[in-house]
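Task card 7
Instruction: Convert sequence to structure tokens.
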Amino acid sequence: MMNITPVVKQLLIINIIFFIGTQFVPIAETYFALYYVENPAFKAWQPFTHMFMHGNLMHIAFNMFALYSFGSNLEYIWGSKKFLFFYLSCGLGAALIHTAANYYQFHQGLNVLIDNGYNKTEILKILAEGKYDQQWMQVLGQSDFSHFIQSYMVTAVGASGAIYGLLAAFAFMFPNAELLLFFIPVPVKAKYFVPILVLLDLFSGITGSSVMGGGIAHFAHVGGALFGILMVWYWKRNQFNKNRWN
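Output:
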């Protein structure tokens, strides 16, 4: 097994410090988790800080194990500076795609309410107070109402977007490496494993029917993988993969 590399080690430490810190200072999540951009609680630094926050012990354990498993290989090949740039870029890309999906879902519901006679300013005022009108559900329907409220109020935390970027890069560079998918008890080649994982997230994000459990920012996962595969493809196409940036 490969020894842990410097940046991966530092990222592990930072994530653990953030996780322990939020256990003692829970209000920190209010400042560092990623809120929807039109929510008054949104701050400019949250697209960056959210990737160091985690909801529970299982969440951080899974992400940090994946960071160690895939990150050390990529940092060894790319060098520390290039790896760190890639990791942070995938995390920011995940935040961007997640926010874009929330923007679409929120405004889709908002437009329906406005078309049915509700006042936009009043709707935003109620939401900014952390409340909502149950009558909105009668107009939107339960599913669209849920997407509307969650897009505005629910925060995103976790390194998963950046991790999906690492997975995409690993599959691109080592397509025939065999990995274990958590619900399939046989090894699956990376070139199949990662697309299956991303397609499941895409399906769950679009339909709202999650096969991986609730409370998952599926479009953040898709965004991290998308940015990861685009970056590593661009680097290979331009021979940047031969430059370790160190």
